Amino acid sequence: MSSRIEQLIDEIEEYVESCKPKFMSNTEIIVNKDMMDELLRELRMKTPDEIKRYQKIISNKEAILEDARSKAEALINEATVHTNQLINEHEIMQQAYAQANEVVTMASRQAQEILDNATMEANNVRAAAMQYMDDMLAHLENIIVASTQSAMSNYDSLIGSLNQYKDIIQSNRNELHPAEDIEVTDLDSGAAGSDKLNIIS
Questions:
Q1: CA-CA distance, 181 to 168, in Å (whole number)?
Q2: Based on CB atoms within 10 Å of each CB, which residue in 7, 30, 41, 70 is the most buried?
Q3: pTM > 0.85: yes or no
């Protein structure tokens, strides 16, 4: 919206343009003095009011700018505080993450140590159990070998005694029947566990 001063200036310009030029001149015109005075008088009267209005607008503008500056500074300060809080929270979160990672790493290391120790202990127990079983089996093997050797020795001794008894019996029978042939079969030395004496008349 244009001010009254601007309107008056436009009216003066329009009036000057509408005036007739002076005879034999390109730069001079013929004006109505009363009309021009009226326009200029109103322009002089309106100028102080317009100046005051513009001064008020300028003052308001400064107040508005000052208020805007204050609000901007308040927003900046608030944003700075909030940013610092976020930075602090971020640092706290980073520290928390670092501590959590450290705890996880330590727990993983301890778990691995426990697993390694358990594996080593299990291997040691397995090795000890295998060694114990091997010792027991070796001892049992020695017992079986000794028993076998003892049984074979006793068996040979038994066969020898039976052959002696056989010879005695055969001699006694010959004495009972001197004229008859008496056939006495030998003991079967290849039959394991045979302790019977077969006599054929």
A1: 16
A2: 7
A3: no
